């Protein structure tokens, strides 16, 4: 079972970030970053993109932290020709309520949305090395306590990245990767787990029809998936059954922004404000909730720019 967190971070159209406590319905929009953008003679910064966020608790300092990768796009001020992109990394501290810049690694993560990619204060992403179509896959990690990046060895069993999707996740208290083909809607999945410096294959799931993306594991190796109708479904490998949970993503044709989070209830205060009741949409799952031993709530919270 994944290590849960009591708070969740939200990314608003990659412009604003908020921390949310689902238990108390309190949320806090984080202050704008104070990190300085580099300047270059004759170049203008045209776009700033924020991606690959991760939110985790730092046990060493008793602090919640949010890390995100920043991509800066520059153009020549006279002829408008684009220059190579520049990368930065920013880290937010809830205790200090401020951002700071972290030395950027030589790699950019390939995971664009938040997911269950953190364990014991360390966050993990997939990176690729080499040139297309022969990229190889590695794991980039960031230690929230030491605020340092590191890279794990290449995963030789994955094969070429151009033909394979790889999702990094936490499985039964260990870091794992879920490997599945890029093409087709009948997906097969292989789960590999890191044991020390070695990777061990846990199990394989044969062809599951009508699904596009995995979201994460539940009890007894059950796997949450997103189907072709953008609904959340649950696959039971012991019975080979696919259960429709009645949860629609409400994100028409934007499945890359659907993530699954496990959290524990907490009264941790984030010095924010309460959600307005009119902005909360709660959907109770029907019979499928009994299989999860709890009700699953779907919350669609809308905020303005204020």
From TrEMBL:
List each copy of the F-box associated beta-propeller type domain by range: 14-270
InterPro entries for the chain: F-box-assoc_dom_typ1, F-box-assoc_interact_dom, Gal_Oxase/kelch_b-propeller, SCF_F-box_component
The superkingdom of the source organism is Eukaryota
Task: From the Swiss-Prot or TrEMBL record, give the protein name.
Answer: F-box protein CPR1-like isoform X2
What organism is the protein native to?
A: Gossypium hirsutum
Lineage of origin = Eukaryota, Viridiplantae, Streptophyta, Embryophyta, Tracheophyta
């Amino acid at each position: 079972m994944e290590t849960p967190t009591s708070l969740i971070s939200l990314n608003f159209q990659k412009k604003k970030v908020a921390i949310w406590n689902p238990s108390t319905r309190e949320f806090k929009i984080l202050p704008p970053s104070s990190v300085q953008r580099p300047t270059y003679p004759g170049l203008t910064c045209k776009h700033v993109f924020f991606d690959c966020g991760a939110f985790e608790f730092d046990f060493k300092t008793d602090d919640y932290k949010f890390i995100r990768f920043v991509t800066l796009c520059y153009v020549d001020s006279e002829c408008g020709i684009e220059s190579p992109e520049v990368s930065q990394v920013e880290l937010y501290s809830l205790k200090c309520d401020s951002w700071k810049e972290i030395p950027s690694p030589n790699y950019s993560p390939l995971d664009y949305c938040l997911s269950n990619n953190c364990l014991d204060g360390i966050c993990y992403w997939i990176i690729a090395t080499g040139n297309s179509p022969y990229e190889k896959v590695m794991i980039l990690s960031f230690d929230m306590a030491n605020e340092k990046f590191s890279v794990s060895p290449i995963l030789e069993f994955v094969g070429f990245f151009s033909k394979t999707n790889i999702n990094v996740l936490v499985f039964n208290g260990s870091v794992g990767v879920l490997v599945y083909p890029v093409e087709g809607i009948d997906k097969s999945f292989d789960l590999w787990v890191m044991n020390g410096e070695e990777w061990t294959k846990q199990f394989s799931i044969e062809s599951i029809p009508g699904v596009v993306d995995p979201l994460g594991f539940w009890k007894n190796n059950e796997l949450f998936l997103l189907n072709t109708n953008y609904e959340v479904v649950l696959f039971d490998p012991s019975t080979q059954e696919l259960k429709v949970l009645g949860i629609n993503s409400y994100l028409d044709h934007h499945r890359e922004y659907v993530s699954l989070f496990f959290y524990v209830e907490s009264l941790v205060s984030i010095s924010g404000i309460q959600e307005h009741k009119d902005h909360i949409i709660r959907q109770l799952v029907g019979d499928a909730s009994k299989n999860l031993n709890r009700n699953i709530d779907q919350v669609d919270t809308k905020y303005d720019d204020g």
